[in-house]
Design brief:
It is a single chain. Helices cover about 45% and strands about 15% of the residues. By secondary structure, it is of the alpha/beta class. Helix 13 packs parallel to helix 15. The protein contains 15 helices and nine strands. The termini are far apart. The protein binds ligand 9MR. The site of ligand 9MR has 9 residues, from loops.
């Protein structure tokens, strides 16, 4: 079967695209994905859930969640990690499991095992799922580079269908398109280059949403973007470009429910929170809900003393959330993981040999799963925000 023929088979039969050989290869590949035993995934049921960020946010009608990685549950601290999530959040975002590079490690393999583990964990603990992400020009498996432009477009369509067919009704929210903007790709429209933009031009965005709505009628569909928060030139470019994309999507009546703003805050960048709040008003005026989707704080330019750093991180959470949550279009807040040692920044630092002084402290819980000042800053911002 030619490549296009195989992709066509994928599209029409959804998840049952496997040839026998591909199925065996898929099993072999999924064996490499560490998933925790059911007993670990179930740990935490019945723990008190009232004094938690999830409960405090829910009192005001806001969903609090965090990104979650199934492989963390298989580590020695896995049961405590699971308990923390069961207690603290109302929704989990798949940090890796639903990315195209995870689901499609090779051209003819569609491996859902890790993603199934995440949906099972969410169901066990009655947590909502934010599916991250269907279409992202950046995080694509390397084998896609060998596809023609037409084949890449075909894959995008088939991928949205296959993933949503499998999980229809099980995710409350989907990040349909992630990070469409990348000024450093040097296009006049500031769009991120990649196989799906090449296939359909800017309308790969509207096309993805229309297709997602067709296969998942009930979930909220989100356009997720980074780097809109800072007061520098990059922030201005992102805000301006995102607003123009949103106006176009609105004119096209594309089924976009919410705008996801990632909010990876940093000690290294300038902020102007009133300016950011004005940007949120512009998004809300277009009729979109706003979700803060990947909140954390890069503390690398703050003082090294842990207690001083924690205070600066907490103050940044406080100032940022106070401004952002004053807008009632903001209906959900997600941190990128919950505990410092499971952050992407931690793993990046470990590979650069971080020690106790330099290890990042970006999140509301420390490496022993204890609350930090950032927890209190987030809780207080939730308590002070107007109800939705
Ligand atoms: O935290 C994620 C990291 O573990 C992955 O290696 C990386 C590439 O898939 O993605 C990280 O999450 C990113 C998210 O998907 C999109 N916004 C930026 C996040 C941090 O880099």
């Amino acid at each position: 079967m030619g490549r296009r023929g195989r992709l066509a088979h994928d599209m029409t039969s959804g998840t049952t695209l496997f040839t026998r050989r591909a199925a065996i290869a898929a099993l072999a590949s999924s064996a490499a994905v560490a998933t925790a035993p059911k007993s670990v995934l179930a740990a935490g049921l019945g723990t008190g859930r009232t004094d938690s960020l999830g409960a405090i946010a829910a009192e005001k009608g806001v969903v609090f969640g965090a990104s979650f990685a199934v492989h963390e549950t298989a580590k020695p601290q896995g049961a405590r990690y699971a308990q923390l999530y069961a207690r603290e959040v109302r929704s989990i975002t798949s940090e890796l499991e639903l990315k195209m590079s995870s689901l499609r490690p090779a051209e003819h393999i569609l491996s859902f095992d890790a993603a199934d583990g995440l949906f099972d964990f969410a169901a066990t603990h009655a947590l909502a799922v934010r599916g991250h992400t269907l279409v992202w020009n950046d995080d694509v498996p390397p084998w896609i580079k060998a596809l023609s432009t037409k084949e890449a477009g075909y894959l995008m369509d088939a991928h949205i269908e296959a993933v949503l067919e499998r999980y229809r009704g099980r995710a409350a929210v989907w990040d349909v398109v992630n990070e469409p903007i990348a000024p450093w790709d040097n296009r006049p429209d500031n769009l991120r280059a990649g196989p799906f933009l090449a296939a359909y031009g800017i309308d790969y965005i509207a096309r993805s949403f229309e297709r997602a709505r067709r296969f998942e009628p009930n979930a909220k569909l989100v356009l997720n973007e980074a780097f809109t928060e800072t007061a520098d030139e990059r922030g201005e470019t992102y805000r301006r470009t995102l607003l123009s994309i949103l106006k176009r999507l609105k004119d096209q009546a594309a089924p976009v429910d919410a705008v996801g703003l990632q909010c990876h805050l940093s000690s290294r960048h300038p902020y102007d929170f009133p300016r950011f709040a004005a940007f949120l008003h512009e998004i809300a005026a277009l009729g979109f809900e706003i979700h803060l989707t990947e909140l954390d704080v890069d503390d690398s330019a703050f003082p090294r003393l842990a207690s001083a750093r924690d205070a600066r991180v907490a103050a940044l959470y406080r100032d940022f959330l106070t401004a952002a949550l004053s807008n009632t279009a903001v209906t959900s807040v997600t941190t990128w993981q919950l505990a410092d040692h499971t952050s992407w920044m931690h793993y990046r630092a470990v590979s650069a040999n971080a020690d106790a002084t330099t290890a990042p402290r970006p999140l509301p819980f420390d490496a022993d799963f204890n609350r930090k000042p950032a927890w209190m800053a987030i809780a207080n911002a939730f308590r002070a925000m107007p109800p939705r």
